[in-house]
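S1.2 Input.
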Amino acid sequence: MSEISHIEVVERVLIVHPVFTNVHTSLRGDAEQAMEEACGLTEAINLEIAATLQVNIREIQAGYLFGKGTRETIEKAVEVHEPDVVLVNYTLSPVQQRNLEKEFNVKIIDRTGLILEIFGMRAQTKEGRIQVELAQLDYQRSRLVKSWSHLERQRGGQSFVGGPGESQLELDKRILAERMANLKRELEKVRKTRELGRKAREKVPFPVIALVGYTNAGKSTLFNRLTGADVFAQDLLFATLDPTLRRIELPSGRVVIISDTVGFISDLPTHLIEAFRATLEQTQYADVILHVRDSTQNNYESHKKEVIRIMKDLGINYESDERVFEVINKIDVCPEIRRAEILRDDNFNHHVIGISAQTGENIDKLLEVIDDFLSKNFAHIQYEVPLSDGKALAWLYQHGEVIKTEEGGDVIKIFVHIDPANQNRFESTFHYAAI
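S1.3 Output.
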């Protein structure tokens, strides 16, 4: 196993959040929000926060990110708090990371590196673990220097001119490239297996409901509330990484599959989104998309924009896609003014539902809204089926909602509520036409 980093043994962290005053960056949101999120990321990996430091940056220094005066401020904080690692809440270039480590004589990790560590701890499925390692190796590749000296011991008695310098680096790069190639081949096999599983579900289709939203919005708590499951749902960022599927029954008796997905976060690098394509694919193929929002957050609206951005990357037009419903969570503890606004929207917009996944408030209404939406796309069909054709009758009971039946001689007239895909599948399989 490659040495991606060792921060799992680190206990104390100094968090440095850069505030860019005269330069444009991709890091959105106010400083307080960003620092709060950085602290949440740190706590998600069970590290102790030694101190936090907010620094202003007027101009980015190519080799360090920070200017000389700011570096001196950070160095003093390192001397005072003696952290094991400094987290820079920004994406550093490999050169910036190495230069800062030399200057402060302490381990430096940036925002992307920390998120990768969290992903590594949370992934449970085989595909999730492969994707994490692949993303970690891709991240590490550009930062590969002599830090992989442990690999030299694996070379046996070979010798290279110049010792463990450039030749060692080349060997490390080759080992890394081979490992990444192997992981990609393994990942392709797992993906093919998953695709077969998805196609199998289409043959016996149930509508799929996908939960999406900003990390820590309460998706897993809602999932547990709806399914009676016990999915990991602690108050941590990225508590869910692998796709989790369960069957539930709606008020009409219709069976659906509900899927919990990875939480979104501001400025999540594209290759990290790709790393969890498995869990996000459930969103692309879903019949209903529930965007779970945390009504207690000050950055309530900016979180929504981030979700819209990532869903756009998945090919989903948030504003026009009828499958998308906003589920405003935690209304039992949100500010009273916001609660009133949410409940007002709830009354006038069927695509907005205020709930509390914790207490169960309005969960029944949420299920009814989902049921009604799915029913709109289902047709009321009548078939005449011989009583002797038990397979066809059983199929209709399994895949549709049988409203009533009327027996007449050797045939039965069956009235069924069924979606168009299943209607076509029934008629092509059993050769009956609607009447």
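S1.4 Remarks. The longest strand covers residues 48-57.
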